Amino acid sequence: MQNEKACGYNGPMTVFYCSKCGTTLIPDLMALPAVPAVPGLEDARPKGARQAPPTVPQGCYAVETEPWGAPFVVQEDQENPVSSQPRGTLMATEEGFVASAGVRNTIVIHPDDAPALQPLPDWENSTGCCGPNGTEGPNRACPCGARVATLAADCFGPYELHLDPVRTYAFTPESAEG
């Protein structure tokens, strides 16, 4: 199967659903043991490209265990700031450098694996230079209108889609047995 080859793993397939209406959002993804390491984003981006390569291969997903996305809080150590979120860059406000205080355990997928998800009206929460930077909160909705995911696709950050772990749920048939 294509997913087995792309993911390098032969395990059960997982389907993701909207928690509000139960619509299938993403069918048949295989779990990765962790979010893949990404080289320096500037080094990873092909010359002239406006996006980095996708963090996760198509047909796969991984769980981001660290806080990701909005809201952001001021970092305690302003002399030695760290990236604002995993695979992110430094981010500052008037108060100083900030770090994500967003939800943990978002589901990271390849953006092309979720064609049913739509941008919010008037591209709300989609600020960025070459695409949404993913720092303003959910910017993709289920066909029912529920805000369920955040796309990060700007030229200075990763290329990935984060499913909210509360606004979506997963079902893996093998996990239902036993």
Keywords:
178 residues, mainly beta, nine-stranded mixed sheet, three-stranded antiparallel sheet, 8% helix
Average per-residue pLDDT, rounded, comes to 87
Question: How many β-strand runs?
Answer: 12
The class by helix and strand makeup works out as: mainly beta
Give the overall silhouette: globular
Secondary-structure element order, as H and E? HEEHEEEEEEEEEEH
Which segments are poorly predicted (pLDDT under 50) over 5 or more consecutive residues? Answer: none
Which percent range describes the beta-strand content? 25-35%
Helix content: under 10%
Separation of the first and last Cα atoms: 26 Å
User: Main beta sheet: strand number and arrangement?
Assistant: 9 strands, mixed
Indicate the radius of gyration in whole angstroms.
16 Å
Put simply, the count of helices is 3
Widest sheet, order of strands = 8-9-10-11-7-3-2-1-12
Task: Explain this structure.
With 178 residues, the chain is mainly β. Helix content is 8%, strand content 29%. It has helices spanning 2-7, 41-44, 173-176, and strands spanning 13-18, 24-31, 60-64, 72-74, 92-93, 96-100, 106-109, 118-119, 140-141, 147-152, 160-163, 168-171. The protein has a nine-stranded mixed β-sheet. Strands 4-6-5 form a three-stranded antiparallel β-sheet, with no helix packed on it. The longest helix is centred in the N-terminal third of the chain and has 6 residues, at 2-7. The protein starts with a helix and ends with a helix.
